[in-house]
Amino acid sequence: KNNKLIAPSLLSCDFTHLADEIMAVENAGCDMLHLDIMDGHFVPNMTFGPFIVSQIKRVSKVPLDVHLMIEAPDMWLERYVEAGADYLCVHQESVVHLNRVVNRITELGAKPAVALNPATPPQVLEYVLEFVDMVLVMSVNPGFGGQKYISNIIKKVEWLARFREENGLNFLIEVDGGINRTNIGMLSKKGVDVFVAGSAIFSSDDYKKTIEEFRELL
Ligand code: DX5
Ligand code: ZN
Q1: Within the chain, which residues score under 70 in pLDDT?
Q2: Angle, nearest 10°, between helix axes 18-27 and 50-59?
Q3: Ligand 1: which residues within 6 Å by Cβ?
Q4: What is the DSSP string of 17-54?
Q5: Which helix (DSSP H) or strand (DSSP E) does residue 213 occupy?
Q6: Which of 92, 111, 126, 159 could share a disulfide with 133, CB 3.0–4.6 Å?
Q7: Owning domain of residue 160
Q8: In CATH, what number is assigned to the domain containing residue 87?
Q9: Do 72 and 94 form a contact (C-beta atoms < 8 A)?
């Protein structure tokens, strides 16, 4: 429906059948794939790096939304763009020179996005919003799939949607963490454009049915 995008997070998929899982969510009608990169330092978990991203790129047809939950992401930008990131997302909390990092991602040819932890206010992004393609509002503390949605992030969505409107900007607003059929419709109405969902999709028996149900609620 309209311009709303659904981005399954592969974190919750069966990694022993990665290509099959990717094909299954693409055939189920997803719009992007969300890839969670964790380094064991910025977050207390580890996943995969640019090599696996490049392998995913070879078998996927939809854009890749790469979410870097790592320290010093500025050292890795080039590697992830080369690997095939379409959106490349850094955490505000892990970057000192955010303007520089965002501009660098653009120069490298990807779309810059910035993520906010649940406790970080959106106003810290005021002077960078005109340069980003997407803002990722985390609705759980990053690190793991299957956590409970933190409901006060709705205030950040409202602030971002208002700022976007008042300033004639067009960055996308994305939510990530605990997204399911109970909150997706309300978030959509408040202005969210991109919905990441890991466990809600991959723990369902029918990905297509789940994604179609989501779309009905948007
Ligand atoms: C959390 C990740 C999310 C996670 C979402 O650190 O950024 O992308 O996979 O999983 P669910 O939808 O299960 O909360
Ligand atoms: Zn994520």
Answers
A1: 1
A2: 50
A3: 9, 11-12, 34, 36, 67, 140, 142-147, 176-179, 196-200
A4: GHHHHHHHHHHTT-S-EEEEEEBSSSSS-B---HHHHH
A5: helix 207-217
A6: 111
A7: 5-217
A8: 3.20.20.70
A9: yes
